[in-house]
């Protein structure tokens, strides 16, 4: 484990960011901090993989060109897209880039994320993030309720 890895308690709302563009990183970090998230930043693709495997992040925001010159070289996004749902179900994932139409469902589906955000609309990131998290929570509510009952022994066969 990295020496500078910050402890995450059970009451924290952890978020993980993977950005190459400092201005976008700062804007996203400010929004997440305002929303009460404990923000971690991945410096490299391997750092992202290590952090994501060790903490159940509630929100993950990835830049389309994180550590890459073209989207096809973004190893973090590729690795995330290849993960099974059980490995990433706990996180609401947003993808930020210049090529997207904000909140276009087919673009999000095509990139295996919950929402896409055009970088020109980062000024609305707080509202967009709140909506993406709320939509994902609503979508998974029944699954999580059943899962809780099964784990607590409350479900009957």
The order of strands across the largest sheet is 2-1-3-4-5
Class by SSE composition: alpha/beta
Task: Give the biggest sheet.
Answer: 5 strands, parallel
CATH topology: Rossmann fold
CATH superfamily: Response regulator
CATH architectural name: 3-Layer(aba) Sandwich
Order of helices and strands: EHEHEHHEHEH
Helix content: 40-55%
The tally of structural domains comes to 1
CATH first level: which class? Answer: Alpha Beta
Count helical runs. Answer: 6
Total count of strands: 5
Rg to the nearest angstrom?
A: 16 Å
Strand content: 15-25%
Oligomer: single chain
How far is the first residue's CA from the last residue's CA? Answer: 41 Å
How confident is the prediction overall: mean pLDDT? 89
Q: Shape from CA axes?
A: globular
SSE map:
Layout: E1 14-18, H1 22-34, E2 38-41, H2 45-54, E3 59-63, H3 75-82, H4 85-88, E4 92-97, H5 105-110, E5 115-118, H6 125-152
Parallel strand pairs: 1-2, 1-3, 3-4, 4-5
Descriptive notes:
There is one protein chain. The protein has 157 residues and is α/β, with parallel strands linked by helices. It contains six helices and five strands; from the N terminus they run βαβαβααβαβα. It has helices at residues 22-34, 45-54, 75-82, 85-88, 105-110, 125-152, and strands at 14-18, 38-41, 59-63, 92-97, 115-118. It has a five-stranded parallel β-sheet, with helices on both faces. It starts with 13 loop residues before the first strand and ends in a 5-residue tail after the last helix.
Please describe the structure with a list of short key phrases separated by commas or semicolons:
single chain, 157 residues, alpha/beta, Rossmann fold, 5-stranded parallel beta sheet, 6 helices, globular
């Amino acid at each position: 484990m990295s020496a500078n890895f910050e402890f995450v308690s059970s009451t924290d709302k952890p978020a993980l960011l993977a950005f190459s563009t400092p201005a976008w990183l700062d804007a996203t970090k400010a929004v997440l901090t305002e929303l009460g998230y404990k923000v971690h930043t991945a410096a490299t693709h391997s750092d992202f993989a290590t952090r994501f495997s060790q903490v159940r992040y509630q929100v993950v925001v990835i830049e389309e060109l994180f550590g890459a010159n073209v989207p096809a070289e973004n190893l973090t996004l590729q690795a995330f897209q290849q993960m099974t749902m059980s490995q990433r179900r706990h996180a609401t994932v947003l993808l930020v880039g210049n090529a997207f139409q904000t909140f276009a469902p087919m673009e999000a589906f095509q990139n295996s994320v919950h929402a896409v955000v055009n970088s020109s609309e980062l000024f609305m990131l707080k509202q967009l993030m709140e909506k993406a998290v709320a939509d994902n929570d609503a979508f998974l509510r029944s699954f999580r309720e059943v899962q809780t009952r099964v784990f607590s022994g409350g479900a009957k066969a």
